[in-house]
Amino acid sequence: MPNTKSAERRMRNSARKHLHNRSIMSRLRNLEKDYRALLTAGKKDEATKELRDVASAFDKAVKSGVVHRTTANRKKGRHAAALNRLK
């Protein structure tokens, strides 16, 4: 338990931020899973549209500080390479 008022405040803030970050990470994982499902099904056109959504979501997560920039760039690159292998 926190001993000071500022520690209580930090605990509340970190709990709130933790929930926010978890929701963003969950959304990213779901988008990636849907994208991989489209790739395995061989649906190129739908996968291309989904790739835009995935890349946009990663960029927004980077902007809010949930995901590191290099992690997002690596994942976006690997997703794009997987789409190019499909074509």
Summarize the structure.
The chain is mainly α.
What features would you describe in this structure?
- The protein is mostly helical and 87 residues long.
- The protein has a single domain (5-86), classed as Ribosomal protein S20 (Methane Monooxygenase Hydroxylase, Chain G, domain 1), CATH 1.20.58.110.
- It is built from 3 helices and no strands.
- The protein is elongated.
The Cα radius of gyration reads 17 Å
Largest sheet: none
Number of domains: 1
Uncertain parts: none
For the record, the CATH class is Mainly Alpha
- Shape by Cα distribution: elongated
Ordered list of secondary-structure elements with their pairings:
Blueprint: H1 5-41, H2 44-63, H3 69-86
Helix pairs in contact: 1-2, 2-3
What keywords describe this structure?
single chain, Methane Monooxygenase Hydroxylase, Chain G, domain 1, elongated, mainly alpha, 87 residues
